Amino acid sequence: MPRNILVIGAGIGGLTAAALLAKSGEHVTLLEASSELGGCAGKFKRHKFLFPAGATLGMGLEKGGIHERVFRFLGKPLPLEPLDNVMEMIHPDHTFVFLKEREKHVDNIVRHFPEAETNIRSFYREIYSTASTVRTLMGPLPALPPATAKEWAALAAAIRPVHAKLLPHFNKTLGDCLGRHGLGGLKAFRHMLDGLLIDSMQTGSEEVSYLLAAVALDIYHEGAYYVPGGLYRFAEIMGESLKENGGALKKRRTVVKLARSEGSWIAIDHRGNSYEADAVIFNAPIHLLPGMLSKDLANLLKKPLLQGASTETWTTLTLYIAVDSSKLSAQLPPFRQISTGSGMAEGGHFFMSASRPGDLLRAPAGFQTITVSTHSKAHHWDSAEKYKAARRALSARMLDAIEQHVPGFRDAIVHLEKGAPKAWERFTGRPNGYVGGFPQTLDSALFNSISHRSGISGLYVCGDHIFPGGGTIGAAASGIHAARSAVSKRLV
Questions:
Q1: Residue 6 in 3-state DSSP?
Q2: Mind listing the pLDDT tens digit for each residue in 135-171?
Q3: What's the CA gap between 109 and 106, in Å, rounded?
Q4: Alpha helix locations (H) across 361-420?
Q5: Cβ distance 442 to 325 under 8 Å?
Q6: Taking the CB of residue 403, how many other CB atoms lie within 10 A of it?
Q7: What CATH number is given for 4-41+228-311+436-487 in this structure?
Q8: Which residues form the Amine oxidase domain (predicted)?
């Protein structure tokens, strides 16, 4: 008999769960506070320009990748060609190009550090071997940390003898690996890795979990994609599938209260509407969850979830820019990192993505839309005076760095607006504009992650704060776990 499932929040995690459940025959209602789908992977329009709100680089679309599996299950494949040149990484002393083909990529890196060739090649051999072993667990996709006998059994069933070689690395960081290969002091090489990791793991090589870092450094080689229009297409496809399979999708519905009543869940939105369900999947910011529950229910939440709900993460400043391409000496590449050498945050490192010429979903012919984002600490924005100063300083820092590498960039700008933490809070509902999830350090990764099981029967959580972590792949995987547990079906 179909179950009534309420999903709160139409980010990638919630949409994944809702679409999978509706396709499998459940009765699904999805409530979204915004008028847009996708959360941090959503979009907005300004005049004739469309801007991705946050996430821009498509991952997990290769055969067997998380998104590919979901879209295949939904009967909505998204055929795209992977990028051979994934991104350009501009650093003070070197400019690297991340290449899809592993061997060519390592050859390219070695050219910058010929004195460390043997060490670098041995490092990448280990990284790629480790990532390959970890990826064998992506098929069964066991949930971590296991919270029930069934989840422990699923984990045990997924383990093979080859996984024994991962055990010594569970409590190691990537920094430990770099030290073993004699690369701990090769600062420019390490800084390049830090630039990749801060964008995917929210932390650098010194503290990031080795096993997750290996996958993060390798996954670009599995397939990185430019998605015409932007990653909001993921959200639209799943929203369409949800409705095609009988689900209800209601926008501009902000849930303000969750309660239990005679074995069912009751949600109340800001308009006073109530929704009854057998189970709830919560994809809104976890910082909001305790306040939606009665004190008695909130006290039942698992300790890691409660701790996470009171922990700050990164904020960001994002610039949304449209340029007249005719005023540039060359059209901008789709993806580029720029690192000034002044650290991994506060404009010292930022990610820049541009629409491809001919992507008319994002900009008219002759124009490109660009998003530029940097990590920032919340305390830089905690007063009106500091907020104004940080927004001005970080914007200037990033624009100055771009101008240095793209002469005439400022003169080509026809539209510019700034997405500071308060704008992110309004757009996504995330308190203080927190984005990206928790840094994947040893204290918050793998068995120390926050489970999709809240600790309260019938209430599940997903999103970038939940195992396996940030990014659209991580959010989708957490949505899969939540959906599986809500109805005790494997689904994908």
A1: strand
A2: 999 999 999 999 999 999 999 999 999 999 999 999 9
A3: 5
A4: 384-405, 409-412
A5: no
A6: 13
A7: 3.50.50.60
A8: 12-484
